[in-house]
């Protein structure tokens, strides 16, 4: 059997060492690298299919627009401005906040945090998921029989609940809106998309991502999409 190649593509990304955690945290917190600010970069690079990083950079600045209500061109100057805003947020907000937190955190805070994350938040999430599905979606889709997915499917297929329609079923993934400050920019990973495709092949129905906010469905348009899916599956 031929040996698997250990060759990996050359990396062009810069290394920021321990500073990267601060840069990542601040950038994500203030949404400085979201599509609304820098464009849909992964879609753009797939459209470009560049052979070199220089080709990609040139193509990006020629085609990239912010994914906002009033799109604007993404330029080198606009990226520089985002970098300057990142620095300002770190210096003026993040460092003071973290300095205070470092000075005030106690051993008991750490003990309580681990317990709260493991027990309390898990239970809150469990109740939120069940309420979204059995108190709300079941009422809006009365012909659908909902059930929790098996543990194996939950881990392997990213499916939290199944909605049975006759001999078919569609899938649900429930996410708290706090997982993404702007769920409109959320995009499943390649692994998740593959899992969703496997689910559709097995059960016939699509997989829908439902966002919960204060115990309510946040992306209400997903309900209409489910109703269309129920009609489609019922007709098969």
What does this structure look like?
The protein is of the alpha+beta class and 236 residues long. Helix content is 56%, strand content 13%. It has 9 helices and 5 strands; from the N terminus they run ααααααβαββαββα. It has helices spanning 19-29, 35-38, 41-48, 53-63, 76-104, 107-140, 151-157, 190-203, 221-235; strands at 145-148, 161-165, 168-176, 204-213, 216-217.
Number of domain units:
2
CATH topology term of the largest domain: Endonuclease, Chain A
Amino-to-carboxy terminus distance: 45 Å
Strand content: 5-15%
Oligomer category: single chain
Average pLDDT for all residues: 88
Q: What's the order of the H and E elements?
A: HHHHHHEHEEHEEH
Architecture (CATH level 2) name of the largest domain: 3-Layer(aba) Sandwich
Largest β-sheet summary? 5 strands, mixed
Which sequence of strands runs across the widest sheet? Answer: 1-2-3-4-5
What structural class do you assign from the helix and strand content?
Answer: alpha+beta
